[in-house]
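Backbone description:
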Amino acid sequence: MQNLPSNSKPMLLRIFNGNMYVVDSLPVLNNQTVTFNVPDNTESGMLRIILGMSPYAQFINGEASHLDILYTREDIELNIDFNNPDNSVEVIRSDENRNYFNYMKKDNRYFMKLGSLEQVVVQYPDRDAFYDMALKYYKEFQQERDKWIDSCYHSNPQSLAARILNTRRMPFTEGNLTPQERDSVYREQFLSRIEFTDTLLLNTNIYTDKLFQYINFFLNRDAGPRESEDLIISVLDRIEPQISANEQIRNNLLQFLISGFEAMKMENVLAHISNNYLQQCGSSMDMVKRRLEGYRKMAIGQKVPDVTAIDLNNKPINLYNEVNPYTLLIFWHSGCSHCQILMNKLPEMVQKGLFKKHNVKIITISIDEKREDWVKYSKAHPFSWTNAYVEGAFNSQAAKDFNIFATPSLFLLDENNTIIAKPITPDELEESIDALK
């Protein structure tokens, strides 16, 4: 490995279904040579070599430099430049990786050609012979690429490199489409040329990357949280039939999607998955089913369970005893930056009379790991509403009952403790309160 910084700590990870797991974090370092040991029980698939942080990456707080390689139980020897791993890699030993990097290099050239021709036909001022020739080449390059992929795959269908290449097929498009028109074609056809049946590819990033790319064709960056959720639900209804040919692949890819939507706090999407996709999943999904069942139980229109917490004076606060036309129940954590933003914004909303106007009582419940942290924050930021705490943090009964996996979690309740809104942002909270009668 040329130009390896002296302070670099290379690692070897394996990829499975969008996640990465450590294979070797203590390689043998000898000058410019890095030697990793791969345990005998490591499955074939894609490995990621984390090389370390370049000075530029450190300056911009970027990601560590890395290189993805293929492992099929053969010895691998590579020559890499730390400063440009993808373009500098030379395969000294490993037929699988030699084929893989040759495939990727040629395929990237195809994409560069197609991208250049797209710019020509979109921006070229005249529809003349040169314009027509560019359109002709655009079509021919797509056909040529597809035939090349066919040839590579059918000549060695057991090769992991060829199987990865086979999933990189793209829909055929006309060269003079606008970006919006091309996205429309991709929305209809992007997944249709992929067979989600090869379980070995779960040990790579190919399936998960494809799903992520596909979802991005539908996203509207200007849409609000709820509009985005409705859009995602419509996309999922397209994805699920495509990935259902193999139960193992379907279950794993659903878990990948669920993890992503949990991180994005898309609870309506998670409830939709629970209601529509998990009934026929096997026992390996039982834990996921139980988790998603919580999102269904905490959906808008459902009655929340009772909860008892303790205020700063050690007085019990019971939700069901607090009878009000409306209640805003917030689970939060003093160390959570998003919670701090919300807690700074709430007094402004109180001052405006927003909650008083609509008869909304505020109850905030801290799920801090340590009671002292909640007390310290509360004394530094005195609240004018009911402020309480439950022990046990995310493992508390309250967190389990309300399906709390992230903070802040907001529930706007009516007088019967039925959920009428689950706002995410302060602006959405204000909209939900304004909408009350």
